[in-house]
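#structure-requests
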Amino acid sequence: MANYIAIVHKEDKTDFGISFPDFPGCVTAGQTVDEAKHLAQEALALHSKGIIEDGEQLPSPSKLEDINADTD
């Protein structure tokens, strides 16, 4: 299985958010890092399953350098 990059977001007085640059719209959050990590694994699995069920191919994993260079 491919390894996709997850980005952890955290601001004051918020939960830990996780998003996947290769899967727009696939986001989750948890009160702790461990909870967010667990929920992120579930979210990515469910999102990937939906893509496959729709007959589409999963994207190739991005390189960290490309994600860091993206200003959006």
